[in-house]
């Protein structure tokens, strides 16, 4: 049994609703904008994939604003980090898209919640600084639940009154692919009939600058040059914020309520590099095995894949590792599925990355298009043998392989196919 | 702590109506106890849970938990706000007997009086 996707929700640099995101993907419209952190124009980070229409720079939720149409009580807001607000907005969309009301999932033991987030470094820092300023005498009572890495699952579980599975994943840039994978397994095992999968990240000095200190970020000020996965001149990733939610159901549950599936979650696989805390295996060994396992789980072969949604973040080392693994899986067999790296348009949303690519793949299958690589100039010679279209192709892929890799060498791949 | 002129509006009050800002300035300028009452009532209304639907107008006698549906987190948020605003410390013992807005206001004014004496 393969679960079906019946709802998607987006708060992303390229749009805050399904229609806008799809249009941005079709037209190759990026969401990367100039940024300045801590009032320091000398910092090397010049651009980021910013979420528009929200104002969440303040550590106090009382200062926040967000688009109309989301009614979020203050008892919920006070426990949220900025990315928790994004997450709720994306889940609201996914539920509506699936034809569900929050009351339909409240206290339903057959609905689970699978979250991915790195927590809120900004709130953690702010709350602990406040505590230290008074030598431990007091602190924000919601400091823990709003800032540690489980903040999404704590808050969303309470807000939506989830009584099935509630869990969170912390495998960095592979974490929301892990969330989707384990949600799929729980549905397949008959433990649940419906799951919400959501990844979210915020973007501020505390969340992003530490990556600059790892020399992982692009120093380019031109968005088209800053995020250009697989380009020979790429110099690092562009940070991004947002939240993406998927609503998946067993086919029986979807059909019983007359929901129309957009795509099917056909299989997934994971494998680790066993190599480095931060860098990928130079030949993408773990990623290759994860792709092979995902294909096997989906009951297909490399020949059955007609598009790859690459993890490619635009870092020199990471993109090379993925290119080598893709060549080995496809080009070595004479296969040339199209390969697209949507981070050229969005930047890299870290914990959101996996579920964002899965949701983009759903749009691609349902909407009949293949996103290209509009920022790609001269491709890295390591990509020889890979099919990297520059612009969007007007054809519906039947089976997409969506890749994720995270710190510690976690690699998680999904196969998404037409329902 | 002489960095703020006595009549400067406090940024923490930015979201409050003009009459509350004016009351706070009156307290800062003259130590007016009635002004403290206006600010405390405004803060209690601002921090009350969104589910709270008080039957009657909020007055000095309104009870925080029973009528305004305050929970322990909302109480903590309100207390922190008042502590920061008036630069006082309200301990758990100070708050143990607080039931109504009047109790809370008395607690704040008592602390302010102690602070004024020791300043």
Strand content of chain A: 15-25%
The SSE order of chain B reads HHHHH
CATH topology of chain B: Non-ribosomal Peptide Synthetase Peptidyl Carrier Protein, Chain A
CATH homologous superfamily identity of chain A: Thiolase/Chalcone synthase
* Sheet of most strands of chain B: none
Low-confidence stretches of chain B: 1-8
Considering the protein shown, what is the CATH homologous superfamily of chain B? ACP-like
Which fold name fills CATH's third level, the topology of chain A?
Peroxisomal Thiolase, Chain A, domain 1
Overall spatial form of chain A = globular
Q: Give me the strand/helix succession of chain A.
A: EHEEHHHEHHHEHEHHEHEHEHEHHEE
Count of DSSP-assigned helices of chain A: 15
* Largest sheet report of chain A: 10 strands, mixed
Structural class of chain B: mainly alpha
Q: Determine the fraction of residues in helical runs of chain B and give it as a percent range.
A: 40-55%
User: Treating each run of at least 4 consecutive H or I residues as one helix, how many helices of chain B?
Assistant: 5
Radius of gyration of chain B: 14 Å
Largest interface: A-B, 10 and 13 residues
